[in-house]
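Exercise 7b. C-alpha cells:
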C-alpha cells in the first residue's frame, strides 16, 4: 500500500489541484494523509471531500513524521500541497520501486506556471540532482519517496533542522541504501516562492544554503528566515 503524506497550513488555493491529480492517477491501493498545522481556511474541508486522513501536523518535518506514524502503507510518498502529479506518475514510480526495490528516491520537477526562468531553474535543479545522486543526495521534500523501513531506520525527519530538512533526510537514508532519481514526467512544482522572493534572490539564497550545509552541516538556526506558508504572512513555531 502507498501512503501519501502532505503537510499543510492554509493551502486551499493549491490542495484541490494536488488531490485531483492524485485521484486521476488510476492507482487504487493508497491513502492520503494530510498533516495540518492549524489551517484557518478551507484546507481541511477540501481534504475531507477527498477522503483524506487528517492528523495534527506542524512544521514540514513534524507533519511528515506524524504522517508516517499514521501511515498504513510500506511505501511513503511525501508531497507538498502545491505540487501537481503528471498523468501516469504513480504507476511509473511504483513500478520502478517494485522492480528495483527502491527505498529512497526523488523525481524531476518543473516549476509552474512556467516561464523561461522556471524552465532554466528546473533543468538546472534536475541536472544537479541527477549528477550528485550517488555521492550527495538531493531530494526536494515536495516530492520524495521512501520505504517506511528506511524512514524508521533513520528516525524520520530531524525536527531540529529548520531548513533543507529534506536534503538532510535523503543524505542520512543514503548512508544505508542507494539513492535513486526516478526519471518520470516532471512533477509540477509551484513557483510561488520565486514569485514572492524574486528569482535572483531565491537562487542566491539556495546557493548559500548549499554552501552552508557543505561546510557547517544541517541548518538548525533560523539564519535564512524560513517561514512555513509565509505566502499569507503567517509563521508557526515547532
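Sequence design result:
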Amino acid at each position: 500500500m502507498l501512503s501519501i503524506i502532505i503537510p499543510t497550513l492554509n493551502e486551499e488555493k493549491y490542495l484541490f489541484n494536488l488531490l485531483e491529480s492524485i485521484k486521476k492517477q488510476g492507482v487504487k491501493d493508497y491513502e492520503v494523509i494530510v498533516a495540518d498545522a492549524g489551517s484557518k481556511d478551507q484546507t481541511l474541508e477540501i481534504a475531507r471531500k477527498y477522503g483524506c486522513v487528517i492528523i495534527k501536523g506542524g512544521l514540514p518535518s513534524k507533519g511528515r513524521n506524524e504522517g508516517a506514524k499514521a501511515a498504513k502503507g510500506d511505501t511513503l510518498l511525501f508531497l507538498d500541497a502545491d505540487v501537481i502529479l503528471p498523468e501516469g506518475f504513480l504507476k511509473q514510480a511504483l513500478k520502478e520501486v517494485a522492480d528495483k526495490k527502491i527505498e529512497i528516491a526523488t523525481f524531476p520537477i518543473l516549476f509552474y506556471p512556467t516561464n523561461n526562468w522556471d524552465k532554466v531553474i528546473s533543468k538546472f535543479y534536475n541536472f544537479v540532482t541527477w549528477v550528485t545522486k550517488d555521492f550527495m543526495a538531493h531530494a526536494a521534500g515536495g516530492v520524495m519517496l521512501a520505504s517506511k523501513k528506511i524512514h524508521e531506520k533513520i528516525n524520520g525527519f530531524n525536527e531540529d533542522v529548520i531548513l533543507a530538512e529534506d536534503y538532510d533526510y535523503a543524505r542520512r537514508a543514503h548512508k544505508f541504501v542507494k539513492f535513486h532519481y526516478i526519471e518520470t514526467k516532471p512533477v509540477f512544482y509551484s513557483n510561488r516562492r520565486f514569485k514572492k522572493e524574486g528569482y535572483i534572490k531565491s537562487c542566491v539564497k539556495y546557493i548559500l544554503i548549499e554552501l552552508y550545509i557543505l561546510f557547517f552541516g544541517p541548518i538548525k538556526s533560523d539564519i535564512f528566515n524560513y517561514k512555513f506558508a509565509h505566502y499569507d504572512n503567517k509563521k508557526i513555531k515547532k
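Instructor comment: The beta strands are 2-8, 30-36, 53-56, 75-79, 83-84, 104-106, 109-112, 143-147, 180-181, 187-190. The CA atoms of residues 11 and 82 lie 8 Å apart.
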